[in-house]
Amino acid sequence: MVKITYIEHDGTEHVVDAPEGLSVMEGAVRNMVPGIDADCGGACACATCHVFVDPAWTEKTGERSAMEESMLDFAEGVQETSRLSCQIKVTKDLDGLVVRMPPYQG
Fold first, then answer.
1. Cβ contacts of residue 38 below 8 Å, gap of 6+?
2. What CATH fold (topology level) applies to the domain 2-100?
3. 3-class secondary structure for the chain?
4. How far is CA 38 from CA 19, 59, 60, 72, 94, in A?
5. What's the chain's Rg over C-alpha atoms?
6. Which has the least CB within 10 A, 13, 29, 78, 95?
7. Where are the domains of the chain?
8. Number of C-beta neighbours around residue 103 at 10 A
9. Which pairing describes strands 50-53 and 2-7: parallel, antiparallel, or unpaired?
10. CA-wise closest residue to 94 among 79, 83, 105
11. What is this structure's pTM?
12. For residue range 15-47, what is the model confidence (pLDDT) as tens digits?
């Protein structure tokens, strides 16, 4: 299991164990983390799983795909570290990952 910390916009932390192979979004949904709605079910079609990846983890989470970039155009408050959590696969290298949710989610 991989530990991921999801931080709501008000600072509330949710530390969950997610199995490798899931997406960061699926880890949140399975553990009922508020602020990750995942309306499209992980199809990269809605941006309701928008997160800010902690800067220490941006290299390990990889680059945004062209499709992800397009979807982030519809999200509010996009930053350099913005990602769609449905597009980040949980691997052992992400053990300890920290992501924050924007204020409009949750």
1. 25, 26, 28, 29, 46, 48, 49, 86
2. Ubiquitin-like (UB roll) (3.10.20)
3. CEEEEEECCCCCEEEEEECCCCEHHHHHHHCCCCCCCCCCCCCCCCCCCEEEECHHHHHHHCCCCHHHHHHHCCCCCCCCCEEEHHHCECCHHHCCEEEECCCCCC
4. 18, 24, 22, 14, 20
5. 12
6. 13
7. 2-100
8. 12
9. unpaired
10. 83
11. 0.94
12. 999 999 999 999 999 999 999 989 999 999 999
Tell me the two tokens of residue 75.
């999200």
CA geometry: angle 26, 77, 9, nearest 5 deg: 60
Q: How many CB atoms lie within 10 A of CB 43?
A: 11
Query: What are the residues facing 84 on neighbouring strands?
Result: 50
Residue with token string 């982030």? 72
Kindly state the tokens that stand for 85: 């959590």
Distance CA 15, CA 95 (A): 11
Unique residue bearing structure tokens 């309306």? 39
Residue 97's DSSP bridge partners are: 4
How is residue 88 written in tokens? Answer: 């980040």
